[in-house]
Amino acid sequence: MTPQTSPTSQTSPSSPSSPTSSSPQAAAGPRGRVARVVTTRPRLLLLLILLLTAGAVVVGGGVAERMSSGGSQIPGSESSYATAELERRWPASQPNLLLLVSPRDGSRDVDDPAVASAARDLARRLADEKAVLGVVSYWQSEDTALRARDGGEALITARIKGDEDAVDDALEALEPHYRGARGAVDVRLGGPAAVRHASQEVIADDLVRAEVIALPVTLVLLVVVFGSAVAAALPLLVGIVSVLGTNAVLRVITEFTDVSVYAQNLTTALGLGLAIDYALFLVRRHREELAAGRDPRDAVAVTLRTAGRTVLYSALTVAVCLASMLVFEQYFLRSLAYAGIAVVLISAAASLIALPAALVLLGHRVNTLRLPVGRRGGNPGAGWARLARLVMRRAPLFAVGTVAVLLALGLPFKDVRFGTADDRQLPSSTEARVVQEELRNEFPGSPGSALAVLVEGRPGAEALAEYSGEVSRLSHVVQVAGPAGRFVDGKRVADAPPAVGHVSVLHSAESASPQSVSLVKKIRAVPASFETSVTGPAAVLADTQHGTAERLPWALAVIAVTTLILVFLLTGSVLLPLLTVVVNGLSLTAMFGAVVWVFQDGHLSGPLGFTPTGDIETALPVLMFCVAFGLSMDYGVFLVSRIKEEYEIGGDHRDAVVLGIRRTGGLITAAALILAVVMVAIGTSRVTNIKMLGLGVGLAVLMDAMVVRTLLVPAVLRLTGRATWWAPAPLRRLQRRAGLEEARTTYPDIPTRTERPVSGRT
């Protein structure tokens, strides 16, 4: 196929369409080779990508069913060890299914003969189920902890055996036979298994709704940005390919390790957001080169060598930020790292291979199907240039003022309290949540939140009795039951059951509260002549907080060091990487302040439709930091790479900053707005943690693009001046030897941008 050439290129002594040393397609290095393949074999590349995408649809189908909603427990911790030992030796010791039984006739109580008879039949039938063991009912044990204070409800507890997938399958099979009206009683299902199952169903439904909201709104915004339906469709198609490809990767990963159900939400958000960002950046640069008179093939080649380089560095930076979650031990964060790395790399690959191939085939038709929207005439970017000049004239004022505002917005985070997710994450009408609410409000203690103490070392009856009595005296403890009997306030109130090796501690504190964490520490501090290990929801929370705090500095170090290295390799500057890390950190203050003010303290809980619990999921701020910092780096790399390009062309620092902002200000704002739409769509979830993730990261993205990149960055760069680009000679030589310096290739047939005044001072 003969490349099309413009009249200008035909009269040029060195045509860009000819693969000479000055041709964009003749550039050396990996990007030059990619450009040659893309421009010479576009149809073959697109066919291969179409086949891979079709395969991803097949492989990734049903990935949500393979995911789990747990993953907060720290492997190797005391609670993890105790949980594993109890499940291995006494699997019935920790019930994960609760049947809340109430009389159908409201005038009766749970001790009514007809009610008791129906409840006993129900318990016997449940005990005969192959997937169930350890069935205990109030009517069998006469344990008052299993009876509501007013006698209107009572519990049957049981353990569904197996891993999370087996438990979910068994629960689905049991539900139709045990829920609802059963003779003289009504039955509702609760407990950890029911809460987890309900969470997965709600999350899956919400994800579909988020996609239905995000895709059409995103398409409309892209049409407004480009003014062309063809150009607008390309980024959206790249985003869809990225999401489908990542789902297939996650499906494969589930064969080897646990993956959190939250990973799919992150895949949708980042798959659409980042792929659209990268494609938007590349398509805009490609259209600039076409407008400058380049042949479509050469325009693609130049785009890959300039904007493509930026996309590659941006993807590496974002991937590293998300990969930092691998330093944590809980699979909730590790699985999100798997999803994040996959979606970023697939988004970059689709943008750098599939999109350029499509642009080659479309040629100038990328601008067809123009619609009566978007910018018409005028001077594109002139408003951004005026704003940049204004900020740089008053640089100290804008720098100090912006930092002060950002720090003020982040002040609420100083009062953050960390907890763990419970049933209140779910919509208030969800049956599993209703049951848990009844347990909290009407029962003296909830079996679902009880603590279990694993006893090892063959202690005597007297030692066990002394230990159980001491634990029962602790504040918030309702009763202690174990091999020595049942104890309340230090006194034995019932004889010992058949000998077992664990002690159950029923308490009245919220399972995710500071009081329950404090209780765990007090129990662990009770002296004993034998070995004890405490587990249960509050113990898991205590160990999670400790483990997360222990690994957090390592994650921050990974992000900081790799960011410094990558930005240095991109820019060749020593100061600019340091500024980038500090500025990106400041851009997240509003997000963290809003998380505490809104979701912990409960402001706006009515309009947003969630129940505040007074704390924040321990691992969620870590996830939000890694995601938001990576996305901020995304826009930071877009901006500084363009400023560097203009600085190398013109040599004037102030002009480079103005022109860089002029050419990327609208692009970054549009990309941020689109990504915010995707995140807000995710934030419409009825699960509080996903709502927090979506809305929080959406706010961070908008603050970064509209405040930090437009006000703080130009002000700081004006203050640092030409020192921004300084580096010691050895480091500069190292960067150039690594082959990362952008080749300065001139094209005699295309006017250089330095012929156009930008600063207003020429």
Q: What proportion strand?
A: 5-15%
**Average predicted local confidence, pLDDT:** 83
Identify the overall geometry. elongated
Estimated radius of gyration: 31 Å
Number of alpha- plus pi-helical segments:
25
Overall structural class, as computed from helix and strand content, comes to alpha+beta
Main sheet overview: 6 strands, antiparallel
Helix content: 55-70%
Distance between the termini: 45 Å
Strand order of the largest sheet: 10-9-8-11-7-12
Could you state the oligomeric state of the chains shown? single chain
DSSP strand count: 13
Textual characterization of the structure:
The chain is of the alpha+beta class. The chain has helices at residues 7-11, 30-40, 42-60, 78-89, 113-127, 138-141, 164-178, 192-226, 229-253, 262-291, 296-323, 331-362, 382-393, 395-409, 431-442, 461-472, 514-525, 537-571, 575-587, 589-600, 605-608, 620-650, 653-682, 688-720, 729-737; strands at residues 97-103, 132-137, 154-160, 180-182, 185-190, 418-419, 451-456, 477-482, 485-488, 491-494, 502-507, 531-535, 616-617. The protein is built from 25 helices and 13 strands. The strands form three sheets. A six-stranded antiparallel β-sheet has the order 10-9-8-11-7-12, sandwiched between helices. The protein has a five-stranded antiparallel β-sheet with strand order 2-3-1-5-4, sandwiched between helices. Helix 7 (164-178) crosses helix 8 (192-226), helix 10 runs antiparallel to helix 11 and helix 19 packs across helix 22. Mean pLDDT is 83; it is low at 1-22 and 742-762.
